[in-house]
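yo

u said u wanted the structure for the complex thing, so here. seqs first:
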Amino acid sequence: MNNFKMLRPENFKEYSIAQKTVSGSKLPFAGGTDALDLLKERILQPDYVVNLKRMADLRGIQEEKNHVRIGATTTIAELAGHPVIREKFPGLQQAAESIATPQIRNMGTVGGNLAQRPRCWYFRGETYHCLKKGGGMCYAYVGLNKYHAILGGGPCFIVHPSDLAPMLIALNATVHLLNAEGKRRKLALKDFFQLPAQNLFSETVLQEGEIITHVDVPIPQAGNKNLYIKFKERETADFALVSVALSLNMRGNTVKSGQVVLGGVAPVPWVVKEAESLLNGARLTEALAEKVAQAVVQRAQPLSQNKYKILLTQNIIKRAFRLITEA
Amino acid sequence: MSSWKPLDKMTILSHYYPRIEGPEKVSGIARYTYDLQLPGMLYGGILTSNVAAGKIVKVDTTRAKQVPGVRVVLTDIHPTGTIRFAGEEIAAVAATTPQALEEALRNISVEIEKNAFVVSTEDAMKPTAPRVFADRENVRKPRVREEGDVEDAFRKADVVVEAEFRTATQVHACLEVHGSVVHWEGDELIIYDSTQAVHGVRKDVASFLDISPRKVRTVCVHMGGGFGSKLRGGRYTAIAAKLAKAANAPVKLMLTRRQDFESVGNRPDSIQKIKIGATKDGRLIAMDAVSYGSGGISGGARVRLPHVYKIPNWRYVHHDVYTNAGPARPFRAPGSPQAAFSMDQLMDMVAEKLNMDPLELRLKNDPNPTRQKEWRLGAQKIGWQNRNRKPGSDAGPVKRGIGMAASVWMTGGRDTKAMLRIYPDGHVEVRCGTQDIGTGTRTYVASVTAEELGIPLKKVIPLIGDSDYPYSGASGGSTTAPSVAPAIKNTADKAREALTELISDKLGVDADEIQWKNNSIRVQNKTLSWEEACAFIEDEPIEVHGKWTEGLSSAGVAGVQFAQVAVDTETGQIQVERVVAVHDCGLILNRLTTESQINGGIIQGISYALLEERWMDPTTGTMVNANFQNYKIVGSRETPEIEVILYDEAERGVIGIGEPPTIPTAGAIANAVYNAIGVRLFTLPMTPDRVLEALSQQRS
Amino acid sequence: MAQRNKIEHEGVTRRDFLKGLGTGVLGSVVIPASPLVKSVKAASPDVEELAGTVSIQITVNGKVHKVSVEPRTTLLSVLREQLQVTGPKPVCDRGECGACTVLLNGKPVNACMVLAVDAENANIVTAEGLAEGGELTEVQQAFVEKDGLMCGFCTPGFVISATALIKEKGTKLTLADVKAGLAGNLCRCGTYPKVFEAVLTAARRIEEKGGGV
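structre next:
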């Protein structure tokens, strides 16, 4: 790691003062489980690490009238263990528990999970000056790409590694941001992410100095069922090869509305746009699942070594529908 | 020829008892090489090449030398200046802190004239491929072994099966990286090393530095895993010694995790094309095999064909292939897991073609009498009779199956010496220049002594892991137990004789009037306790020297494993649910640690079967997964239920069991997968993508 | 200090913050966030900045230490290189293997992925600090008895994770609980089956004794 300096704001005000008055590159830092990896590998060499851990307003889970507010520096373990989450959002609890290891879940944060950088082995390797790092080529495209994108790729073929994001998007979460000027904005979490074709260098719309303050998740209407399935190559601990977040608002056996969001297959959490029209008013059957699965993979463009993800994605989607039917 | 006492007379050996350094290890106070901190010690490190092939043109250390805390920068550490793989040493630094070390290494600028390279075995075999060594072809001269008349036998065969198998390069990935702490005392070099061979390191490092081995001492009290990769002295140790000499201070030089993945060993990959012929009554009569494999810039990729089965006519042609990748080193049963993966699958393929039970086919063709018994026992324990008769016939997406494979290994004992002292207070100290690589060696050095002298284990202080102790060889080839245990027994026997002689002197009785019972010594009509007997020793402890002797150990070990798997045909995931392992262990020194060894072999075998694969980037020639995120090894949830059956053959004496249990696992799993889904996997590791691909091919 | 007060009047005040934590009324006295940080060099007078070497206090295995660290120094580095607490092992340096697992305020974390300044005033427990009065804990004892170790390099991390698991989930553990609790610890020798046996045995014994971990 380079010998960075550290800023430790204690509130939003101090945060923006830090951003405005201190010159030099700055890396927001909370749980550190992603940031330290990038720092150790020298993918990032900031002048300052802006440590958010003392900002009490960023932490904790609160149940409001219509939504649950999840602070950005709430740890994954706190999220997974929270009774409100368990009760209202089983899918979110499943997503949280599927992340990494018990140790990492004690450190890693919700905000960090959403803003984490891709795990592409070329992006993470100091040796490879890839497109995302300002270089001239995507090494994965010509090289080793078994873990890479089948949807939405190009010119960079990373997959987004977050487990929380697909589930939170399926639950219609809103993300709240604070920028370097101290200004706040909010947007639907699905709009928080962007494809490499839109911006090669950032997977999110976060501007320089902007941080996530919290995520609001609307409390689902009666009849909602949600779940998250993550398929890992190594069950013990791994990033997703493919994951599916499913949230369905049901009336009896009929789907009123619903969302299907995929992890591990695209540079962003992949919202299955086709699902909306297929789901609305449909009966929850195997045939429906098959249709959704088909719709997804029709658009897939596999690379040399990841064709298997097409079949895998179809099968995991169908499994998710099967499990939610049984639930 | 000496012999062990009968099993029913043994009170420690052949029983279950915990390893003696357990309390230190569970409380974190056991010190490994990585943990050592000597006064004034500097942190050493190596700058390695991230270029796969080229010529070092210029190394500029100006800026590195200016980094505060830097004490020495060396640039003359590469023997030739020609880089042949990413991971070769270019320069070295010693600094006062790890941070200064890292900073300095980053501030060395290196100019390399790049050459074309090749990192995949198949690519390297093409005539147009860049040459790894300018003066040699990439595909080395084949090594041919042949018995009988292969062509004639194939003509006579009723059935012939043929397949191509591929296995991936596996990296040792020891949790403690390779490295040393070195310290010069005058012209004598003391090396604390994470090693499997304290004597070997002394010899190798002395040779690297061109000094007398007499001037080198190696110490290894605890070490964090080797699996074959730490059998020799490392160049990194010699580099550390050079840094220490130049800085006039002790130096700790541990490789980085990336360097450990890249440069200090692997199990080479293999491409095996094998044809088997059998008669219709199920006798194998012919094998024709060709293999290719790359140990990077070294050889060592040969597969141990034809494995365990008796085939009267066979030919095996092997080609080592050079690639621009780190050299191979022995890895737990070199060449054997690859052979079990191919040959035990071919056995099942022959059985299917003959419509014969695979177990029956093995019993017909396995010449080893021990394994004949083991096959039957294992089949019974796993429930072979209840298997899927028709592969892939389970209903639902998750399908179960059972498979089996065989193990064979040489082992055997060899030269080892030991020294033992009995002190007047009854304590016994045993010195032996072996080392404990996690296998329980230290514990049986004590327990063999205690057993032979009839004293409690806690009276014995085993001292190992020091090249100043009497010679013992490297902990490799599963030879340690059959080498060390007999030497200790021989030494303990001599100690007893010496004590007898002393008592006979002191009491003025004939030696043959002194009788050793289990925990006491009868002299005429009196009974002496061990302590009373030792009280005759005055100032000078009794000191005896002993050595390995014939008759207490054997060579050759046989084993079988059965695996039960569940294959999720929707995801391609293979879960190993249960393994039954039957291995003959001769005289078992410690049942508890032997079970652990067998568990460990199986778990590494599962890891090899399902997860492990070194990925080399074709564009840069570097390893993309030199970390534990993407070089995946088995964790808690991949661990199945394991039933270990120690097949006692105490009359054979001590035999080694470190390597045999990792041999059959991948083969047994592969056969179980076929039994589960009716599709055969010919490539390791059997990852979900490959399983799904195989299933898709079957459907289309 | 004047600057700080100004900020407090403008927005979220430290008093509110402290009230939120239940520390009671403190009047207008501002408690410095980090009394032990020595070289606070203010690039901005309003925000604490750590640069160069700072001095922090951490409690390791019940003993309070003052150590000098850089902002980039990891907890693992402080434990091993400064305090010679070498039970936590450096293996992957990326939070992938669990060999450096320690309890930080009671929770297992990877010491390689914690910055030392974030462990300021924290209570750290390593494998060395579990045994009281030199007597092994039930977990440690069971690891020894059941042979839940081979080369032992991963063992201190496993022992900490197992201890944390029983503390968190209690003594009625299933094999699946144990596997989940130990999912952040890798062993290359393959001791897992004996580790599972050790953890289940320790949990049973603790339950029988009705005592703590």
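Residues 205 and 238 of chain B are 6 Å apart (CA to CA). Residues 480-507 of chain B form the longest helix (28 residues).
cya
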